[in-house]
Design brief:
Layout lengths: L1 H22 L2 E2 L5 E2 L6 H25 L1
Antiparallel strand pairs: 1-2
Length: about 70
């Protein structure tokens, strides 16, 4: 009987740990849970500029190939 109670207590402790982890996550736009870490506005702008630069270079290369 003691062994069963000990296993139940261990399972409850494990579930409490999982619950506290899930509590730190927040739902995204589509309802899925995403970790709470986001990029700053400046980082998003840098990434956006870099992607536009890559697209611009691809367009120039495509035009030059014609």
């Amino acid at each position: 009987m003691e062994k069963i109670l000990h296993e139940i207590d261990a399972e409850i402790a494990r579930l409490n740990n999982v619950r506290s982890l899930l509590a730190t996550l927040k739902p995204g736009k589509n309802g899925k849970v995403i970790p709470h870490h986001s990029l700053s506005e400046a980082a998003r702008k840098r990434i956006s500029r870099a992607q536009r630069k890559r697209w611009r270079e691809q367009k120039r290369a495509a035009r030059a190939a014609k």
